[in-house]
Amino acid sequence: MGKITGFLEIEREDRDYQPVAERIKHYREFVLPLPEDEVRKQAARCMDCGVPYCHGTSRITGAPTGCPVNNQIPDWNDLVYRGNWEEAARNLHSTNNFPEVTGRVCPAPCEASCTLNIDDTPVTIKTIECEIADRAIAQGLKPEVATIKTGKKIAVVGSGPAGLACAQQLARAGHEVHVYERWAKAGGLLRYGIPDFKMEKVHVDRRVAQMQAEGVTFHYGADVGVNLPADKLVKEHDAVVLAGGAEKPRDLPIPGRELKGIHFAMDFLPQQNRRVSNEPLGSVEPILATGKKVVVIGGGDTGSDCIGTSIRQGAVSVLNFEIMPQPPERENKDLTWPLWPLKMRVSSSHEEGATRDFAVLTQKFEGENGHVKRLHCVHVDAKFQPVPGSEFTVEADLVLLAMGFVSPLHEGMLKALDVAFDQRGNVSADTVAYRTSLPNVFAAGDMRRGQSLVVWAIREGRQCAHAVDKFLMGTTTLPR
Prior knowledge:
The chain is of the alpha/beta class. It has helices at residues 6-9, 20-23, 36-43, 73-81, 85-93, 99-105, 109-113, 125-138, 161-172, 189-192, 202-213, 230-236, 265-276, 301-313, 333-336, 413-417, 446-449, 454-473, and strands at residues 16-17, 31-32, 153-157, 176-181, 217-220, 239-242, 248-249, 262-264, 293-297, 317-322, 355-358, 360-368, 371-379, 392-395, 398-401, 405-407, 441-443. The chain has 3 domains: 6-138, Fumarate Reductase Iron-sulfur Protein, Chain B, domain 2, CATH 1.10.1060; 153-247 and 407-473, FAD/NAD(P)-binding domain, CATH 3.50.50.60; 252-403, FAD/NAD(P)-binding domain, CATH 3.50.50.
């Protein structure tokens, strides 16, 4: 795979960013692509390692050690090295419906699993994947229209990455597929959660157009269980796939929570995405960081997105709190590799001017005239117990809660369907049949497995499509 001695001769080089002073002035993507010859050189570093953990499976858990969609990474690295971009794109799309998305927003567990990561120089897999996808799209996305129609009609509820992947696979298998989305446009988290500076929405629009050409019908403003009866949907379709995501945010029920100026991240982020795409905000009150002291509570990807958006809106300052202790700068590879390591991660948004603090517990919000003005905080130990004498206060005009999501919303569709839930409040369905407690209703993505990565949602959607096709037809040629 690649050049036999490539990993010995070629240093790791990855994409760079626009300077901070430039990129915070706009909401466009700011990653600077590598030249073609450099991408091919990076692909040449793939070292024919014998056991490609980048797309392998754990013998203990059965879960992927690297890429959740099992991208055949060594194969398309070799094809890129040899300049066969077209075949590389065919290979990549055989396992991943939206590689241009994962090439932008995936945290790249494949690179953590790369054998060269033992020496902290993994192959730049994410960059190569993105380049393959972008080159293929530049040639024109061709719809893959099924030659034989099955006569089966399927509803997919939710148009996030799981719903889109499932719908596309089922349409290509010859089924009549209808996607029901409660918002004005398709994409779910891809459109309304991920900021445009990380992924512009043209990538979603192009895939939606491709899917429409493949026969998928999109229904917008369709809030199943609210303005569209759930039982009607079940009766009118041979199968229903629930792919509505995990949208119930984790709250912070402490004194002062009722004050104005305290918002969930997913009330804040979609507004800016709508502004960028000129989509009306409707009657909601605008949430803006302009001229404000912002505190973001939560140290994950959503918190990072809130930081980058606040800085672009013109926040006076941005402070980021995380309740977990500060992780080590470098993981112990002897203990973690090839699994995903716990270590200090600095996103592009963190680099843009945020101040971070770890092991912080917010105990109380304080306000003036009904609006938040201060946070009363304390540092905590490894057991999350307050450390005596470590109390402190910070000023804030805007507080954004980005502490993750606990489950899908039960109100509306799920309550109307009366599906069973697992112990965490997710829709109960196994990873083979993907079937819920109702005979022809399936579940996939975050709604089934809980809050996770986009690449896991794509995997879930593809596997659920396999299960639905087999359920309807008795057999299937769709991959798992």
